[in-house]
Amino acid sequence: MLEAYTLLGALAAGTERVSLSTLVAGNTYRNPALLAKMVTTLDVVSRGRALAGIGAGWFDVEHRGYGFEFLPLGERLGRLEKALQIIHPMLRGKRPSFEGAFYRASEALNEPPPVRAGGPPILIGDTGEKRTLRLVAEFADESNWTCPPSDVPRKLEALERHCADVGRDRASIGVSWLGSMILAPTPEEAERARDGFLHRRGIDFAKLPENMQRTIDQALLLGDADTVGEFLQDRVLGVGLDGVIVNLPADATRRAAWSGPASCSAA
């Protein structure tokens, strides 16, 4: 992968309408005050199109490779909570001071300020019901989930409880679902695109055990526009989520017609 904020700056210069965000930046990789400044700079360069996507961080191999400490999940979530106490006010026109074991800030100045009125929205990734969704209720404008669609109603209830605890309307937080999609004019072409994508990575789908084939297919939205659209409408948007974000691992859409909800975007 390319470095996210360097690439987003280039995309800001070459686009006019799309929103620009990481999905999501690992909190462990960047000082929180500096991250707030980076998001603000992106917002200024893009004339108000930045979102601040952040999560606790998860990829142990990357941490070790680049020399970042990889802590247990509970400690990573603790650091994310502290970081948000710096990032959130900096993006909202305040000058926070913070003194903790991991982060420090002294009247952190964020000038020039963001262009977007109210500052760039904060998006928190992941669906931990006890801690992550509580942070969503406290700090976030949006939340992106990777859970199975069958888990969505329970997690929405958990988010509703956290919002009630902090005195916030759950409807003020946009919640989207993240999936990987292979879309083609026909289901057969989508399957061929899947097979080709795996073949380029040294995997022969036809020779995999049936349980591995099922695991791969369950991780993909695969088919023609009608099949994929019905799944998203019935299994994702139909259970109370506000939007969909999709990865496109295999290009099978050159002749496919696709019209999704306004909140549906590609990452």
Describe the structure.
This protein is of the alpha/beta class and 267 residues long. It has helices at residues 4-14, 32-45, 60-66, 73-91, 132-139, 152-166, 187-199, 210-218, 225-236, and strands at 25-26, 52-55, 98-99, 104-105, 122-125, 142-145, 174-183, 220-223, 243-247, 265-266. The strands form two sheets. Strands 1, 2, 5, 6, 7, 8, 9 and 10 form an eight-stranded parallel beta sheet that branches. The longest helix has 19 residues, at 73-91. The protein is globular, with a radius of gyration of 20 Å. The protein starts with a helix and ends with a strand. The relative contact order is 0.10. Mean pLDDT is 91; it is low at 254-267.
Secondary structural class: alpha/beta
Catalogue the unreliable spans. 254-267
DSSP helix count?
9
Listing every helix as H and every strand as E from the N terminus to the C terminus, the arrangement reads HEHEHHEEEHEHEHHEHEE
Shape estimate: globular
Beta-strand percentage?
5-15%
Oligomer: single chain
Q: How would a crystallographer describe the biggest sheet? A: 8 strands, parallel
Q: What value does the Rg take, in angstroms? A: 20 Å
Summarize the amount of helix as a percent range.
40-55%
Give me the count of strands: 10
Question: What is the overall pLDDT average?
Answer: 91
For the record, give the distance between the C-alpha atoms at the N and C termini, rounded to a whole number: 13 Å
